[in-house]
Amino acid sequence: MNSPLPPSAAKAPGDTSAVELYEVRQKIYPRAVTGLFAGWRWSTVWLTQLVFYGLPWLTWNDRPAVLFALNERRFYLFGIVLYPQDFIYLTGLLVVAALSLFLFTAVAGRLWCGYACPQTVYTEIFMWIERRIEGDRPKRIRLDREPMSARKLSVKSVKHALWLGVAVWTGITFVGFFTPIRTLLGEIASASLGSWETFWVVFYGFATYGNAGFMREQVCKYMCPYARFQSAMFDRDTLIITYDGDRGEPRGPRAKKADPKGLGLGDCVNCGLCVEVCPTGIDIRKGLQYECIGCAACVDACDKVMDRMGYARGLIRYDTENGLANKWNRSQLTRRVVRPRVLVYTGVLLAITVALFTHLVLRTPLKVDIIRDRGSLGREVENGEIENVYRLQFINSAETGKRYRVTVSGIDTIRISSESEVSVERAGTRMVPVRVRVDAGKGTPGTNRIEFAIEAVDDKRVSVHEASTFYVPR
């Protein structure tokens, strides 16, 4: 069924003027809030930013501890070196991230959005700067309504300068995961930064400045797809931010010492603080809305009001639809949260995570790719021997240089006729031609299956076996 046009969109007969179908964005001025959940939120801000800004500066064996060296096609994660051939680990990591999101959402809704999403984190940082420069909500509203003046221009300029500083440093840090951060800063200082590094510093810095400084809740409401499909992962036992209407209604102001029951009122004093602190500007008293990012700022604000009024906390709280309807206590809620759906997500997530990291830690730090010389499948050399030539690409992902011994088997008298030991530098690759021969009359004409064995000279546990073919001319 089509919704009728709003009154402002109605037109008189014969009126050909344009009709605005989309509401112009109303700027939101979130009020500062303190409390348990605000403290948790700032803890995640500090934790995530210490990791993000700090990792590029850590070193490991005289190299960055975390570096995605795309030009070298190597990815360094502390003592682990990965190559494009290790793409399976990235796939596993994405599966772990997706299952984690499913699990967190099934348990407690948009926990990721409210506490750890980069959009939330940088918006919190930018709003903190804004409050320090312009003041809290009433002062910011008055400042924006004032005509432009020298004072207003200076205050706004300081704020935007600090925003740009954070944004640019964020862009530099992001690129520092791909180009060593010390090298990057040296290139910036000497004005010799490459075009791609320049592009990504500007792009990521501009995205941070625009998203956290201006777009804010618009990213969560309209750009992020998670808000649209989160309902598919919710059920009636998912913890969400809820308003207890049975307890709060009918709402209305009253004196602190007044008896709300005598006045026919609920516990909600209709102060509107839950709306003023909401970063997306919604009224949680209207029920769950897709714009709610689950940050619990309204919970902290309402609890403080309840404390001042002498009422019990929890008028706005984390609860479930079933819990709210059935008036369950915390132990009953906990038993329902730990339900089959959550247990399945948890079990699958743990199994994949353990398998992924176990395989990553125990993997052999050697890979060998064998490529036949297509220019000469097989040729006869001195004494009637048959020779095939191969190119062996050694990939040493260990943090120390290695020397490997190459042997071959599969045909009687088959042997390596060139250098059988190869040295490869730490975290390095090397392509080596290898000649393989058999005596005259050995092997069947055509293709013969053989196997190369490569093992480290100083560590027999580091070895790989690769199958190939040996061609005997007919």
* Tally of alpha and pi helices: 16
| Proportion of strand residues | 15-25%
Please mark out the parts with pLDDT under 50 across 5 or more consecutive residues, or reply none: 1-9
Helical/strand content category: alpha+beta
**End-to-end Cα distance:** 78 Å
Q: Taking all residues together, what is the mean pLDDT? A: 89
Topology:
Layout (H helix, E strand, L loop, with lengths): L35 H19 L4 E2 L2 E2 L1 E4 L4 E4 L2 E3 L4 H22 L2 H6 L1 H17 L2 H9 L4 H26 L5 H9 L5 H21 L1 H7 L2 H4 L10 E4 L1 H4 L24 H4 L20 H13 L6 E4 L1 H6 L3 H8 L2 H23 L3 E7 L6 E2 L5 E11 L5 E8 L5 E2 L4 E4 L3 E11 L7 E11 L2 E14 L2
Antiparallel strand pairs: 1-2, 3-4, 4-5, 6-7, 8-10, 9-10, 10-14, 11-13, 11-15, 12-14, 15-16
Helix pairs in contact: 1-4, 2-16, 4-6, 4-8, 6-8
Please sum up the structure shown.
This protein has 16 helices and 16 strands. The chain has helices at residues 36-54, 87-108, 111-116, 118-134, 137-145, 150-175, 181-189, 195-215, 217-223, 226-229, 245-248, 273-276, 297-309, 321-326, 330-337, 340-362; strands at 59-60, 63-64, 66-69, 74-77, 80-82, 240-243, 316-319, 366-372, 379-380, 386-396, 402-409, 415-416, 421-424, 428-438, 446-456, 459-472.
